[in-house]
Amino acid sequence: MKIHEYQARELMAAAGIPVNPSRMVRTVEEAEQATREFFHNGARLVVIKGQVHAGGRGKAGFVKLLRSPDEAHDAATFMLSNRMVSPQTPTEGLEVRRLLVTAGVDIAKEYYLAITTDRATNTNTMIASAEGGVEIEQVAAENPDAIRKMPLHPLLGLQPWQARQLAFDLGFTGKQVGQAVKIMLKLARVFLDTDASLAEINPLIVTPASTEHPDGQVMAIDAKFSFDDNALFRHQNIADMFDAAEENPAELRAKKFGLSYVALDGNIGCLVNGAGLAMSTMDIIKLHGGEPANFLDVGGSASEEAVREAFEIILEDRKVQGVLVNIFGGIMPCDRIARGIVGAATSIGFKVPLVVRLEGTNVRAAREILEAARTDIPTMQTATDIADAARKVSESVAA
Ligand code: GDP
Ligand code: MN
Questions:
Q1: Whether residue 37 lies in the annotated active site
Q2: C-alpha distance from residue 305 to each of 204, 244, 340, 342, 343 (Å)
Q3: Which of 58, 218, 264, 289 is most exposed, with minimal Cβ within 10 Å?
Q4: What is the pTM assigned to this prediction?
């Protein structure tokens, strides 16, 4: 589960990580009001940022630096009335419903600091770079030596010596070292305490030297956190941060019925039982020149109603030009799927080609149900095996 920047800032502040003052707002008027207050309280710069579950906001025009309160109106209006398009959003972009107004800070240097699971070493790993601010993927691709990695001990977490080594490697000096070390240790603590899968600060910054802070101040001015869904039951405060408006509506609907559904870009809808079979079905579709429109695992114990719901979700996706059903009935009896197909055919109808491949428990009963409904489902073809099914559906979509 992902959360918004303003929520990540709450978690960081609670953990003692310094963040600049900010306020979440939902309207242009509130944004103007908050901007006026920050300027009134002495800020020389105010930043308005779109709150949306995707990064790359700066380049998309959804991070605006304001020098006076008059600029708030246009900045907030733009963000609340345009969809944000960045390399991290779908092509049609995302609607922005919330904004964050921050008291802007002067920046001497930007750094990158994150923790996530390194799948090559199966270890939660701190990733840090003195080349913060810009996209870290680009740094990783063009200048991998600029990225430092430090594995977290499975039981003890990040050790102080590791944080000190990273701080020196990144080039922090004087009092900055102690500040950076504290931030790293606290970030590691939050990551573990919340069962996070990603805790990213980009940028972590140092402010310019001042009389009060001759070495500058190290702080976070942006953050992106996500969490392990399977651990949310033990973090009610984080589960409460869920923002349904940021989720794909079809995926939300599927979740309600206990279906694992992920929307994809292709045009062949897939209904499969079992995650492994779903993955291999997608591979075989691609092998035969097709492109899957979704991943959908109905699982072993889905009810007939859930199966019908699954078909409706697939058929309501306007990209779908053909549907492949691939069921290996072990726990899931094939006749339940067959009744789900007939139910969906009567409730919404299959206007697109449908290819069905069933094997396993109750397959004979299932074939009889489908055979009896053939006139109601004229676009249906049956397949003898999975390669046959993938070929038929790919051909009917290409035709
Ligand atoms: P992102 O593009 O979605 O990652 O949004 P960020 O919040 O990281 O902002 C993008 C960039 O805007 C940062 O890397 C900074 O360079 C700049 N920026 C954001 N907030 C401030 C601020 O308070 N002061 C200054 N000077 N620049 C800021
Ligand atoms: Mn950022």
A1: no
A2: 49, 23, 7, 11, 9
A3: 289
A4: 0.85
